[in-house]
Amino acid sequence: MAMIEGEEEFDRFLARSLAPPQRAPDDRFADRVRHRIMLDELLRSRRAKVVERLSVELLSLVALGCGLAAIGASSEIADSMRQVPHVALITIILVFSLWVRLVAQPTRGGFSGI
Amino acid sequence: MQSRNDEDLALCTRAAKGDQLAFAALVARHERPLRSFLARMGSADADDIAQEAFLKAWRFVSSYDGRARFSTWLTRIAWRCLLDEARRAGRPAEEPENVIQSVEGEGGAEIEDMLARLTDKERAALILCDGHGWSHSEAADMLQMPHGTLKTTVARAKAKCREMWSSQHGDD
Q1: Is residue A75 part of a domain?
Q2: Nearest-by-Cβ selection for B20 from A10, A20, A34
Q3: Pair A37, B58: CB distance under 8 Å
Q4: 0.80 exceeded by the pTM?
Q5: Concatenated DSSP letters for B89-142?
Q6: Does A4 fall in a domain?
Q7: A17 touches chain B (CB under 8 A)
Q8: A65 in any annotated domain
């Protein structure tokens, strides 16, 4: 009988000790979780914007390269470039500068937006 | 009347649509048992792990389908975070950590001593089944062990604690 009582007392002790505490929700903890979620959401949206931006820039760079290659494939243009190579170089630099200016505008959230 | 889990499911559906207030309500409902479980498990960073678990729950809340209780689903996420933490710290998950944080509630040092002598899985099984009212199936599912093994684990953990209890309280 005493053994059963001891067993029951032990079971009660265990259930009581291992049960979650009875208290009001911890607002400070909830606030910390909320802040982490907000920060996570912010980082996620920025990451998505950066990936989108990089994709656009990569695509435009490929398009620019293809365009230049197509122009270079023309025998007349190739001949004139061979005769005045510095003009060809200046043209390429100008086109590239224009591309950088168009793509990396800070107002459009270029790399400065990272 | 809506059951507690139906309410959780409704909050999850709202949270999956980006409603942070609904998720805050879930945090308020479940932080107590989750943090208590993690602290009892002896994690030095119980609150950090709980935050990590809630953050992961937020990210994947749309995948919660209501088949299991939300608390079970959440604790499973926290358990994985706990295992990752143990792995990062280079501690095998089966080894008792022997440092149980003081947890608010009854039992105090006595229960802490008892839990410190159990392995992680014994401790988790005992806390969830005897303290948090989980079914053996729910605990077996979370701890990824067969139902029978879980029952044996709980019984073994209880026997170890009983032995310590007897030596301190003088009954046999």
Answers
A1: yes
A2: A34
A3: yes
A4: no
A5: TT--TTS--------SSSSHHHHHHHHHTS-HHHHHHHIIIIIS---HHHHHHH
A6: no
A7: yes
A8: yes
Residues A23-81: pLDDT tens digits? 888 899 999 999 999 999 999 999 999 999 899 888 888 888 888 788 778 777 777 77
Name the percent of chain B lying above pLDDT 90. 62
Burial of A5 (0-12, 13-18, 19+ CB in 10 A): exposed
Which of A 20-79 lie inside 8 A of B, CB atoms? 20-21, 23, 25-26, 29-30, 32-34, 36-38, 40
Q: Hey, what domains does chain B have and what are their CATH numbers? A: 4-169 (1.10.1740.10)
Q: State the total domains in chain A.
A: 1
For residues B120 and B94, the answer to whether their CB atoms sit within 8 Å is yes
Q: Is A9 part of any domain? A: no
- Does B23 contact A at CB distance below 8 Å? yes
Question: CA nearest B51 in A: which residue?
Answer: A33
Q: What is the pLDDT of residues B70-81, one digit of tens each?
A: 999 999 999 999
Going by C-beta distance under 8 Å and a sequence separation of 6 or more, which residues neighbour residue B59? A40
What b/e string do you get for A74-104 counting C-beta neighbours within 10 Å, with b at 16 or more? eeeeeeebeeeeeebeeeeeeeeeeeeeebe
**Tens digits of residue pLDDT in B137-170:** 999 999 999 999 999 999 999 999 998 888 877 6
| Beta carbons of B38 and B49 less than 8 angstroms apart | yes
In this structure, what are the phi and psi dihedrals at residue A41, rounded to the nearest 5 degrees?
-65, -40
Range of the domain at A53: 27-109
Q: Do B51 and A23 touch (CB under 8 A)?
A: no
